[in-house]
């Protein structure tokens, strides 16, 4: 048995996206900026993709800019916003629950002299409007808040947060990293939201393509200069197949969202209930209800998350510990520390993210496998009291 439970890291490409892309990767290879028919056809496909994708998000097509993915969209939003704001507004505020694409971008800007405030989250990973308002300064250029957390799955009251910021100071730009949210839940890009990042491979589209929504009227200088593609805002020969794949995947998710969401939520509940009752000294991280439909994240006392992931892999379960990006380092995840976990607790984290293609039988298999693997990891853990069958009191 092989059970893929790492859809928040990346998702398999869906059939509608692959089918829609194939002609643009094969016989229809024209450069969308050319003048002959093959090129004009590519341009038409690109603009149709833009219209479809924008419609799924409820925004106008001319506010939707294709990029190479979520990371680029986040970099563009933050770097260009501070560039546009100029000398009088240099401060940046981000939440403590951001993906590295926002966090590390903000930290690099801080090194260049932009003051940075990281807004705390509550124990469930929620950001409160009051905490956000407290972080604002007269010189704040941009606020960036993740729509739904990749590590703990918590969905923020994003419209409320954006409104609070704009009521305080309408000149602050508000960006949201909606990479985990888009396609999976209904995203509300209200007029208070100036920019939003999405990425195709998180919702059944191809890797290497994403988009940045830029509200009309927002002056955002380009990140990439060159031939003037994407209305002069993002140069590079258009990735027609990628754009077509993104749109087809987003449309597929949007059309079936109610059905997928119901199914995935039920699978997630089975997983959460199963794990919490089968494994002693386990806890759910993130919010119990306000979370992404397919997202289940846990911490297990006296277990090393990395070891857990390796052993699960041997038994046919693909999962992750914290976020894939922090896996290369041994530092515990900044998000888990931000919700108040100790270093020991944060080290025992496991994230399982399921999709509508998973089954109940798979969830039961995953629960049993986790139970077995956690038990065996604990037997060799210096933090586990095997005699008493409980963790040492460092927890
Ligand atoms: C995956 C992810 C990104 C990065 O997207 P890429 O397309 O892989 O660059 C950014 N933000 C969040 C919340 C993500 O989950």
Can you describe this structure in just a few lines?
The chain has twelve helices and 14 strands. The chain has 395 residues and is of the alpha/beta class. A hairpin with a 4-residue loop joins strand 13 and strand 14 (390-391).
Structure description:
The chain is α/β, with parallel strands linked by helices and 395 residues long. The protein has 12 helices and 14 strands. The protein has helices at residues 15-25, 37-57, 70-85, 100-111, 129-135, 158-168, 240-255, 257-278, 305-314, 334-338, 343-347, 360-379; strands spanning 3-4, 64-67, 91-95, 116-119, 140-146, 173-177, 195-199, 210-214, 282-284, 295-300, 317-318, 349-353, 384-385, 390-391. Strand 3 (91-95), helix 4 (100-111) and strand 4 (116-119) form a beta-alpha-beta unit. The chain binds pyridoxal-5'-phosphate. The site of pyridoxal-5'-phosphate has 15 residues, from helix 3. Residues 69-71, 74, 99, 101, 146, 150, 177, 179-180, 199, 201-202, 210 line the site of pyridoxal-5'-phosphate.
For this entry, give a set of tags.
single chain; 395 residues; alpha/beta; seven-stranded mixed sheet; three-stranded antiparallel sheet; 12 helices; 39% helix; 14% strand; binds pyridoxal-5'-phosphate
């Amino acid at each position: 048995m092989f059970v893929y439970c790492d859809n928040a890291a990346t998702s398999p490409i869906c059939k509608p996206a692959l089918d829609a892309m194939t002609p643009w990767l094969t016989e229809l290879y024209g450069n969308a900026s050319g003048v002959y028919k093959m090129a004009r056809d590519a341009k038409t496909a690109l603009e149709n993709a833009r219209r479809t994708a924008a419609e799924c998000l409820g925004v106008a097509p001319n506010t939707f800019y294709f990029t190479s993915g979520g990371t680029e969209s986040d970099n563009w939003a933050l770097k260009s916003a501070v560039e546009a704001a100029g000398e009088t507004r240099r401060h940046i505020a981000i939440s403590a629950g951001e993906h590295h694409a926002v966090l590390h971008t903000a930290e690099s800007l801080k090194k260049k002299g932009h003051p940075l405030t990281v807004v705390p989250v509550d124990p469930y990973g929620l950001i409160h409007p009051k905490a956000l308002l407290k972080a604002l300064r007269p010189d704040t250029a941009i606020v960036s808040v993740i729509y739904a957390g990749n590590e703990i799955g918590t969905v923020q009251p994003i419209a409320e947060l954006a409104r609070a910021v704009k009521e305080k100071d309408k000149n602050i730009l508000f960006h949201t990293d909606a990479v985990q949210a888009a396609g999976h839940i209904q995203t509300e890009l209200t007029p208070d939201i100036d920019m939003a990042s999405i990425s195709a491979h998180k919702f059944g589209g191809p890797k290497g393509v994403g988009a940045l929504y830029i509200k009309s009227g927002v002056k955002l200088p380009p990140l990439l200069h060159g031939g003037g593609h994407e209305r002069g805002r993002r140069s590079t020969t258009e990735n027609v197949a990628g754009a077509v794949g993104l749109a087809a995947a987003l449309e597929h998710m949007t059309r079936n969202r109610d059905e997928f969401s119901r199914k995935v939520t039920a699978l997630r509940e089975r997983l959460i209930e199963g794990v919490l009752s089968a494994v002693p000294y386990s806890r759910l991280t993130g919010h119990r209800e306000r979370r992404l439909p397919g997202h289940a994240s846990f911490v297990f006392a006296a277990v090393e998350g990395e070891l857990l992931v390796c052993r699960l892999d041997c038994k046919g379960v693909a999962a992750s510990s914290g976020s894939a990006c922090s896996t290369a380092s041994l530092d515990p995840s900044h998000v888990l520390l931000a919700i108040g976990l100790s270093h020991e607790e944060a080290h025992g984290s496991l994230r399982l993210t399921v999709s509508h293609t998973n089954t109940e039988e798979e969830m039961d298999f995953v629960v049993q496998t986790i139970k077995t693997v956690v038990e065996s990891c604990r037997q060799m853990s210096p933090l586990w009291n095997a005699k008493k069958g409980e963790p040492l009191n460092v927890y």
